[in-house]
Amino acid sequence: xxxxxxxxxxxxxxxxxxxxxxxxxxxxxxxxxxxxxxxxxxxxxxxxxxxxxxxxxxxxxxxxxxxxxxxxxxxxxxxxxxxxxxxxxxxxxxxxxxxxxxxxxxxxxxxxxxxxxxxxxxxxxxxxxxxxxxxxxxxxxxxxxxxxxxxxxxxxxxxxxxxxxxxxxxxxxxxxxxxxxxxxxxxxxxxxxxxxxxxxxxxxxxxxxxxxxxxxxxxxxxxxxxxxxxxxxxxxxxxxxxxxxxxxxxxxxxxxxxxxxxxxxxxxxxxxxxxxxxxxxxxxxxxxxxxxxxxxxxxxxxxxxxxxxxxxxxxxxxxxxxxxxxxxxxxxxxxxxxxxxxxxxxxxxxxxxxxxxxxxxxxxxxxxxxxxxxxxxxxxxxxxxxxxxxxxxxxxxxxxxxxxxxxxxxxxxxxxxxxxxx
Length: 422
Fold this sequence. Notes:
Layout: H1 2-31, E1 40-42, E2 48-53, E3 79-87, E4 95-107, E5 110-122, E6 128-139, E7 148-150, E8 153-154, E9 158-159, H2 167-170, E10 180-183, E11 189-190, E12 195-205, E13 211-224, E14 229-234, E15 240-241, E16 251-255, E17 258-264, H3 266-269, E18 274-280, E19 291-294, E20 299-301, E21 323-331, E22 336-343, E23 349-355, E24 363-371, E25 380-385, E26 399-407, E27 412-421
Antiparallel strand pairs: 1-2, 2-14, 3-27, 4-5, 5-6, 6-7, 8-9, 10-12, 11-12, 12-13, 13-14, 13-15, 16-17, 17-18, 18-19, 19-20, 21-22, 22-23, 23-24, 25-26, 26-27
């Protein structure tokens, strides 16, 4: 009964978001082909591109350079301390933006954030002002996790989706019951110092609250320091259709110039099995260059899997864990690849599994890190962001920034936390 009640509360909250987003959809339909001083968007065909001025707020970070195989695992997965930084928001803005899900992306010495279902209200009156199906922000500092600056949904800009619609999606923008939603629940894949790829799930609604996932789409970011702008490009409407696995939408890690892209088998295993694709970062937009890991044969295959049943033995992570969201990264502190995740969709608890390589073998004896306190309903959309504590003087992985979606009677918003291992 508790689960049903929680799901009902969540559905009602999201229904309010969907109704608000209808107004944004109408606005987007009238501005999507316009060019303004704040943003320009083209949705005439695929590929589609949006361009935004990006704030020059720098948060320098140091990326790890892991080897493919590391042993032995060291350190402790015991948590020494946690700090709750509260709601992540733009404190200087006159708007309070409610949002959920999302992920981070560190390029050009900036830490970008993309969130889902951004709904803005006036801080002074509480009145609804506008919304976007996804929105981009930037971290102000690593020393205060909660501080953001919004720049695609903001008073000086308006309400622009961070990710542009394809022509097919744009034609449904005015329909509350058949609109598309592009949502991400993962961090980006860093391609170079100024560019990255980010995977978003492509959903289409059939009623106010019911939607179907048709696959995922790849979004490319590129920051031009000379112009101070970020270009957001979708090479195609879909990267991987729902006839395969949504590679890159669950987790990713880059090792020696190769991106390891993890996708959940939602259709046949209900998110218990994790499948893996590998591609050189230089060819991430070329699906002909992708290879697909088969754990049963311990070899890569060049043919995209199109499963008709569960392929448990082919999965890179095989466990009794029902994953929902997570982040995979190399922890220097533990000399291991770690996956910090939420299990199922109303778990509220950060957990961890580890491996000496991106290919496994994964120690699927899950370590419970700590449990968050839910508001109403449950917490969801949890990710880890190790770059917040990866400095030249620090050891990557000892401390990690975390975020998750929190629901209360006011709305749904993002909470930020920091965690330090013993």
